[in-house]
């Protein structure tokens, strides 16, 4: 059961679980921050919106940090190659993500309207930039990144920040923004009192939902009709030691759709991506906020899973060296480390989920402008 | 590798790590002090303790957010700036970081939101439990990070695999129970407790000097005096020295701290002061206390403390042996099944890292002459004057802290801690000292490990990512600007909150006569 092949598969799934956990929790924080200056106009409206994420953002944020740590532990090659390769993009994300919690926390500590307004736009940047860059990064992963490994397995990246932006990767970036804005507006709708903010959130949600569907379809068209994708030409050894130099790849147009013909069940993921967004739109229209939030969540799960399943077994293909691509079978830690980490995850992830649910339950209920005015603990 | 890239990578890591650790110690210590204060509230049911807990909790919150945010940089910086390190040791080093996230950081971060926002949504005891879980989470966090850092100082339980060109885990238990990690954990969290105690002591002293909020201030001070005395004793007595006899690099650290250029007969004396001279390898004007160093470092009177020259000779032998391992690895790359080369590798693999030191001077270590090997062996000596002075300042502050808290404790026991003005002034001006000592402690640990990123395994100059100087300057400038602005904001918000004081608009404590402000300020 826990042989090297299965451990690698389990960790490939767990990496997806952590990324989806991040998108579902911190994702709505990003969406809310990106929407802040536009859905809320007055100061008390803005404080109300900020306090919808106030009590839980710290925990949500940890999905990203734990995801980073887990990739380090289970997929050291991926951690080393991707973050050093996407160096400046990563800096942008980190800077924006640092700005965001600081903004939540510090914005309302002073009465000065100019101070507050500056933070509101900092929060907008702190929400929009990571959402966009994450999508652009995923687009680059799909189209292959310009890196190569030498015989010591040191990685060299031969591209710059601007090279990351191509029509396809920009489309992925916009899809990511649309997906998270939809999720964020669904969260605002569920968490604020009925009133102007609630109504605006629903309008933004409708636009973002339609955009998600169109952009996701656009992504599919790119993958189907342009030269994107790679395939492995050497024999795969799922039990082999992790050394990417032993795998040879070649570019292969349409490769990212092949898995769906071999394993038709995988179609669930893209279907969920579309259906979830449609469900969210229905939810918004019928003013059923739980339905809208469930829809945006399902759509997020579907879209992220689609990326992983389309590329399997690739994790990060190289666009310039056909012996450097990282796959599930050549980029993992040892079976021992993967096994230990599975054990740790099986023990702690359910505990994390339990107290996270409890924390959400304690803080449940709509935030009102009245409460913002009277509760001294609010941001 | 471009030496400029290495220096810039080190500069960035030093800046971001030292900055991150401005916030961590206060989080570590203040979280437990909040538990103590809130426990008193729950047990005595006196509202003033609720006010005290909430007041320090507000300062905790301002500090916590920057600790979390800057910790994010650290989590990814190994990948962004030290990608060869990440590949080379990720199989071992990544696990503690991931476990930290799952086991500790989730707990701390999830509970901290409930702690700030849940005062009216939870029972008293329920809220206390949440506060305790925050403290538990932050301290467990430190444990896992120090297991990772301890492994860099003493890489046990792992070996090099030529097939994957990296270190791989052999015994995870050894990584967990690494004695250096244990010593570092106790030392680091104790330092955090001292830091928080001085903070609470100093801010309370400020109120007492101003004659404001006496009820809150004198009670907070009593908590800080007791907690601080215990912690400052622990930080000095359970210092880091216990691990200094374990590995060649740890011995080197000790020798550099003591500026011990040669092995002295046992028991070695402790050099109090002197001027280390790195060209003649002597220490001028040294003032020595006999026996003390031998006692501290070896816990005995008959064991020697090895000097730097002798450790360099040992390094020279290990480089020579390591070149054989390096040669075997190069041949195994081409022909993994070669049994003879595999045997040569196995015989010399523990010195492989030493051969890599030669790469600073020559592309292929196998071509190094004996003269070059002898010269390279001196690379294992870290920056001696920096080590020597950092340690002395840190240790001096450590002893000063014991004196400060002992005084505070005596005064508190005599119930004179709120009126002894010279002491209140001293406490106020002592606030920055623990931060100085803590940052110097990290400089000692990390500079002392040089030239290694992983002791004896991977030199720092090979560990960095292959980035351009331009990219590094961009991020160094960016982080400095961002962190600089945040530091200014943080300090101003802290000062504003301290100035506002522990009053709240709905549940003010009964102020003592003469201390009621004209208009109670809103929180």
From TrEMBL, chain A:
One of the GO biological process terms: aerobic electron transport chain
Molecular function GO terms recorded: electron transfer activity; metal ion binding; oxidoreductase activity, acting on diphenols and related substances as donors, oxygen as acceptor
Top-level lineage group: Bacteria
Membrane topology: Multi-pass membrane protein
One Pfam family matching this protein: Cyt_bd_oxida_II
Cellular component aspect of the GO annotation: cytochrome complex; plasma membrane
Transmembrane segments: 12-40, 61-78, 84-100, 121-142, 162-183, 204-225, 265-284, 291-315, 335-356
Subcellular location: Cell membrane
Keywords for the protein's UniProt record, in alphabetical order: Cell membrane, Electron transport, Heme, Iron, Membrane, Metal-binding, Transmembrane, Transmembrane helix, Transport
Record-linked PANTHER family: CYTOCHROME BD-I UBIQUINOL OXIDASE SUBUNIT 2 (PTHR43141:SF5), CYTOCHROME BD2 SUBUNIT II (PTHR43141)
Similarity comment text for this entry: Belongs to the cytochrome ubiquinol oxidase subunit 2 family.
NCBIfam families the record matches: cydB
Name of the protein this chain belongs to: Cytochrome d ubiquinol oxidase subunit II
Species of provenance: Sphingomonas populi
Automatic annotation (TrEMBL), chain B:
GO molecular function annotation: electron transfer activity; heme binding; metal ion binding; oxidoreductase activity, acting on diphenols and related substances as donors, oxygen as acceptor
Transmembrane segments: 20-43, 55-72, 92-118, 125-147, 185-209, 221-239, 393-414, 426-445, 470-489
Pfam families: Cyt_bd_oxida_I
Keywords attached to this entry: Cell inner membrane, Cell membrane, Electron transport, Heme, Iron, Membrane, Metal-binding, Transmembrane, Transmembrane helix, Transport
Coiled coil location: none
Bilayer topology annotation: Multi-pass membrane protein
Location in the cell: Cell inner membrane
A cellular component term, taken from the record's GO annotations: cytochrome complex
Region (Disordered): 504-523
Signal peptide as annotated in the record: none
Gene Ontology biological process terms from the UniProt entry: aerobic electron transport chain
Cell inner membrane among keywords: yes
Family classification: Belongs to the cytochrome ubiquinol oxidase subunit 1 family.
Protein name: Cytochrome bd-I ubiquinol oxidase subunit CydA
Biological classification of the source: Bacteria, Pseudomonadati, Pseudomonadota, Alphaproteobacteria, Sphingomonadales
């Amino acid at each position: 059961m826990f042989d090297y092949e299965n451990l690698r598969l389990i960790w490939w799934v767990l990496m997806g679980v952590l990324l989806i956990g991040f998108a579902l929790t911190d994702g709505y924080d990003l969406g809310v921050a990106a929407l802040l200056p536009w859905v809320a106009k007055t100061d008390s409206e803005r404080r109300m919106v900020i306090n919808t994420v106030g009590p839980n953002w710290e925990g949500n944020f940890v999905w990203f940090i734990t995801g980073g740590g887990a990739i380090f532990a289970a997929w050291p090659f991926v951690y080393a190659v991707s973050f050093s390769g996407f160096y400046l993009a990563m800096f942008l994300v980190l800077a924006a993500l640092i700005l965001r919690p600081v903004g939540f926390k510090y914005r309302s500590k002073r009465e000065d309207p100019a101070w507050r307004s500056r933070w509101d736009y900092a929060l907008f940047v702190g929400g929009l930039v990571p959402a966009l860059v994450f999508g652009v990064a995923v687009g680059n992963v799909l189209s292959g990144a310009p890196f190569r490994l030498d015989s010591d397995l040191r990685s060299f990246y031969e591209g710059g920040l601007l090279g990351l932006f191509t029509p396809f990767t920009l489309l992925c970036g916009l899809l990511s923004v649309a997906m998270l804005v939809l999720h964020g507006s669904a969260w605002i709708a569920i968490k604020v009192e009925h009133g102007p903010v609630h109504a605006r959130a629903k309008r933004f949600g409708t636009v973002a939902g339609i955009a998600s569907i169109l952009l996701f379809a656009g992504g599919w068209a790119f993958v189907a009709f342009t030269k994107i994708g790679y395939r492995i030409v050497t024999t795969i050894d799922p039990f082999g030691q992790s050394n990417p130099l032993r795998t040879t790849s070649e570019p292969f147009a349409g490769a990212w759709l092949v898995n769906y013909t071999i394993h038709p069940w995988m179609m669930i993921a893209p279907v969920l991506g579309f259906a979830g967004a449609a469900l969210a739109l229905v939810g918004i229209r019928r003013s059923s906020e739980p339905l809208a939030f469930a829809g945006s969540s399902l759509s997020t799960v579907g879209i992220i899973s689609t990326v992983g399943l389309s590329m399997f077994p690739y994790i990060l293909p190289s666009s310039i060296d056909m012996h450097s691509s990282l796959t599930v079978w050549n980029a993992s830690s040892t079976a021992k480390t993967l096994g230990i980490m599975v054990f740790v995850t099986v023990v702690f992830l359910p505990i994390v989920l339990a107290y996270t649910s409890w924390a959400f339950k304690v803080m449940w209920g709509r935030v009102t402008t009245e409460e913002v005015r009277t509760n001294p603990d609010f941001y | 590798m471009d030496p400029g890239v290495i220096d810039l990578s080190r500069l960035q890591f030093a800046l971001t790590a030292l900055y991150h650790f401005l916030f961590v110690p206060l989080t570590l210590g203040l979280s437990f002090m909040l538990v103590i204060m809130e426990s008193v509230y729950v047990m005595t049911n006196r509202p003033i303790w609720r006010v005290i807990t909430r007041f320090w909790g507000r300062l905790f919150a301002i500090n916590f957010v920057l600790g979390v945010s800057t910790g994010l940089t650290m989590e990814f910086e190994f990948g962004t700036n030290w990608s060869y390190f990440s590949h080379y040791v990720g199989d071992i080093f990544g696990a503690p970081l991931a476990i930290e996230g799952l086991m500790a950081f989730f707990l701390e971060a999830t509970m901290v939101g409930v702690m700030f926002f849940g005062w009216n949504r939870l029972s008293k005891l329920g809220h206390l439990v949440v506060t305790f879980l925050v403290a538990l989470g932050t301290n467990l966090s430190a444990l896992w990070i120090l297991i990772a850092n301890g492994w860099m100082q003493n890489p046990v339980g792992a070996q090099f695999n030529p097939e994957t060109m990296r270190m791989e885990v052999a015994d995870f238990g050894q990584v967990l129970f690494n004695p250096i990690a244990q010593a570092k954990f106790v030392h680091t969290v104790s330092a955090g407790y001292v830091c928080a105690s001085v903070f609470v002591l100093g801010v309370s002293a400020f109120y007492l000097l101003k004659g404001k909020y006496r009820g809150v201030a004198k009670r907070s001070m009593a908590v800080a005096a007791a907690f601080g005395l215990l912690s400052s004793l622990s930080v000095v007595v359970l210092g880091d020295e216990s691990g200094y006899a374990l590995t060649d690099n740890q011995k080197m650290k000790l020798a550099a701290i003591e500026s011990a250029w040669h092995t002295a007969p046992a028991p070695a004396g402790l050099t109090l002061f002197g001027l280390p001279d790195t060209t003649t390898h002597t220490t001028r004007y040294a003032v020595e206390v006999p026996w003390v160093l031998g006692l501290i470092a070896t816990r005995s009177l008959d064991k020697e403390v090895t000097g730097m020259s002798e450790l360099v000779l040992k390094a020279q032998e290990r480089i020579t042996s390591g070149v054989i391992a390096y040669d075997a690895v190069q041949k195994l790359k081409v022909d993994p099944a070669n049994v003879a080369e595999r045997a040569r590798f196995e015989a010399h693999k523990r010195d492989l890292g030493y051969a890599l030191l030669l790469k600073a001077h020559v592309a292929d270590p196998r071509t190094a002459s004996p003269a070059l090997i002898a010269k390279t062996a001196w690379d294992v000596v870290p920056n001696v004057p920096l080590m020597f002075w950092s340690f002395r300042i840190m240790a001096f502050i450590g002893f000063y802290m014991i004196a400060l808290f002992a005084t505070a404790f005596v005064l508190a026991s005599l119930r004179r801690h709120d009126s002894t003005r010279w002491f209140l002034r001293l406490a106020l001006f002592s606030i920055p000292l623990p931060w100085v000592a803590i940052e110097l402690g990290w400089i000692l640990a990390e500079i002392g490990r040089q030239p290694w990123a992983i002791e004896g395994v991977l030199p720092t100059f090979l560990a960095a990512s292959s980035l351009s100087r331009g990219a590094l300057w961009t991020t160094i400038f960016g982080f400095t600007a961002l962190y600089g602005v945040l530091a200014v904001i943080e300090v101003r918000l802290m000062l504003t909150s301290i100035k506002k004081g522990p009053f709240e608009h709905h549940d003010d404590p009964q102020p003592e006569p003469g201390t009621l402000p004209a208009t109670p300020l809103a929180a």
